Automatic annotation (TrEMBL):
Keywords: Cell outer membrane, Membrane, Signal, Transmembrane, Transmembrane beta strand
Main location class: membrane
Species: Acidithiobacillus sulfurivorans
UniProt cross-references to Gene3D superfamilies, sorted A to Z: membrane protein fhac, membrane protein fhac: a member of the omp85/tpsb transporter family
Record's keyword annotation contains Ribosomal protein: no
Pfam families to which the protein is assigned, alphabetical: Omp85, POTRA
The protein's name in its UniProt record: BamA/TamA family outer membrane protein
Domain POTRA: 157-228
Claim: Membrane is one of the keywords in the record: yes
Subcellular location: Membrane
InterPro entries recorded: Bac_surfAg_D15, BamA/TamA_POTRA, D15-like
Occurrences of domain Bacterial surface antigen (D15) (ranges): 257-548
């Protein structure tokens, strides 16, 4: 009971002004009274003591005597309607939390009511309601009678789906963002997912998705989607700082409706202290599912990192498939097949080389977060396999596998725990010097080992210079404590490294603390990380990023 009351009445410090102290005392007493009655204690009494918590602040403390509670004398549960005998409702009625002789707990009562309606709404019973929901209480005799009569009503299906507005986009493309189809069981949650999908598409504004329950015929509900198109072409200019690549500036041009066929063209230029790049990306959506599209891209990148310098020209062409059919942006599963062409010249461990590779790649990605802008509950995994052969004109033969993933779970309102990992392995016919840096394995950086510089760790040559490895294993653990709705503090630990064999694996470790702000554009991260093994200047590294990342 103490834990429950602490949630209803958390500690609050107040100033020492007399009027504020009296006001706080009255407000807290009223909240405490309401909380006690909600848990069945109508005759509870308490005493208030004032404690000076600091030179200018007081803390009110309540000593409570619960007294005799209200006992449930009678429970009258009834169900009617076409869904009354569904397995879920039968189960819900069996586990109704208040039994004869139990202490009246109106919190559990209200939660049960809400969950029962939620289950019915998901299954198409959009007009489910309680025809009687009443608790009769005799405060003098300390008993209560509960009357809860549920009528599921009829079961509805989705009917015709009509789209208004956004005329410049093909109808088939807009319909990709609809998370239901005609004939599915009607569910308000599906309407909300569709609205979220359309909002996240970055193509539409003034979005409304409505089920016309008042226009239903024969339990078929038509749906109306109203849209206004945003300008198809955007230019974004930005500047910032990343601990991995240093100060940077970016220019991005997007055309989200090339040829009036919803084809996406992006041209981007990045100028950073450690990374300069320019790229063009072309996506041609096909099929009925979000994420199904043809992909073509080309880029030039120049990097001057701690372990290497490189110049790379990369071109890729291929296809991406969506492996889900519910079209939810928060839950995605995709398979991407590409053919990659790469020309590179690079200096690693003071050795200058150049290479050319043609290699196919296959990448599987699954992501399931309740909210990708607040990735505090869910998981993601990306696994990639690729390989090259001299027969195709490549410099060397190799087969490479890599995977990265994260998992977060919200324990309660204040606490979130999470893990992340990166692994990799390759078979290479020849010395590692024949591979450009982007195909070798390095450790270090914000999403690897934040206590060490970006891509700075791995096996070394005979002179002690890092040259990258054939294997990779890095894992981390973090715990977050929310201090407000959108702000959290975090503590983390990471371990691992890149290596050539398990016999010479040198495990690096770091620890750190940081902050998270879950902003409207995604999580903003600021961390301070300290290397525990082979610490180098600086002893504390700053890691900063904006948006979702593994």
């Amino acid at each position: 009971m103490v834990d429950k009351l602490n949630k209803a009445l958390p500690p609050v410090t107040i100033s020492d002004k007399a009027d504020r102290l009296e006001e706080a005392e009255m407000s807290a007493s009223l909240r405490l009274k309401n909380a006690l009655q909600a848990y069945g204690y109508y005759d509870a009494t308490w005493k208030i003591s004032k404690k000076l918590s600091s030179p200018k602040n007081y803390l009110l403390q309540f000593s409570i005597s619960l007294a005799k509670p209200i006992i449930v004398r009678k429970v009258d549960l009834q169900k009617s309607g076409t869904g009354r005998n569904t397995p879920q409702i039968i189960h819900f009625f069996k586990v109704f939390p208040l039994k004869d002789g139990a202490v009246l707990n109106q919190i559990d009562y209200e939660e049960w009511k809400g969950k029962a309606l939620e289950v019915l709404n998901r299954q198409g019973y959009a007009k489910a309601e309680y025809t009687r929901h009443e608790i009769l209480i005799d405060k003098k005799e300390f008993w209560s009678d509960i009357y809860l009569w549920l009528n599921t009503g009829p079961r509805f299906r989705f009917g015709s789906i009509t789209v208004h507005g956004a005329e410049h986009y093909p109808r088939w493309f807009v319909e990709r963002y609809v998370s239901f189809k005609e004939g599915d069981w009607y569910a308000p949650a599906a309407l909300a997912v569709t609205q979220s999908n359309l909002r996240n598409a970055d193509r539409f504004s003034d979005i409304s998705v409505h089920g016309e329950l008042n226009a239903e015929k024969h339990n078929i509900v038509p749906v109306s989607i109203n849209l206004k198109s945003m300008p198809a072409q955007h230019i974004k200019i930005g500047a910032g700082y990343s601990t991995d690549i240093g100060p940077n500036a970016a220019l991005i041009y997007d055309n989200y409706n090339a040829f009036d066929e919803a084809q996406h063209v992006r041209v981007s230029i990045l100028a950073a202290q450690l990374n300069r790049s320019t790229s063009i990306l072309y996506k041609w959506p096909i099929g009925k599912n979000i994420g199904s599209e043809y992909v073509a891209q080309a880029s030039y990148q120049n990097q001057t990192l701690t372990a290497y310098d490189s110049n790379e020209i990369l071109a890729s062409v291929g296809r991406q498939w969506s492996l889900r059919d519910d079209n939810s942006r928060n839950k995605t599963t995709t398979l991407e097949a590409l053919v990659n062409f790469e020309q590179a010249n690079y200096t690693v461990a003071d050795e200058v080389n150049n290479s050319f590779y043609i290699y196919p790649s296959l990448q599987y990605t699954i992501q399931d977060f309740r909210n990708v802008l607040r990735p505090i509950s869910g998981y993601s995994l990306t696994a990639r396999a690729e390989g090259a052969s001299k027969i195709w004109g490549s410099t060397a033969n190799f087969v490479r596998f890599s995977a990265r993933g994260s998992w977060n779970v919200r324990i309660n309102r204040q606490w979130v725990i999470g893990t992340r990992a990166k692994v990799g392995a390759m078979w290479l016919n020849g010395p590692i010097s024949v591979l450009p840096p982007n195909l070798r394995f390095f450790a270090g950086g914000q999403n690897s080992l934040p206590g060490y510089a970006f891509q700075s760790q791995g096996p070394v040559d005979s002179d002690g210079a890092v040259e990258g490895g054939r294997l990779l294993a890095v894992a981390g653990f973090n715990i977050q404590r929310f201090v407000s709705k959108n702000w959290a503090v975090v503590a983390f630990y990471d371990a691992g490294n890149a290596f050539n064999s398990f016999s010479n694996l040198h495990i690096l470790q770091d620890v750190g603390i940081g902050f998270r702000w879950y902003s409207p554009v995604g999580p903003i991260r600021f961390d301070l990380a300290h290397p525990l093994v082979n610490p180098k200047t600086p002893a504390v590294r700053i890691a900063f990023s904006v948006g979702f990342s593994l």
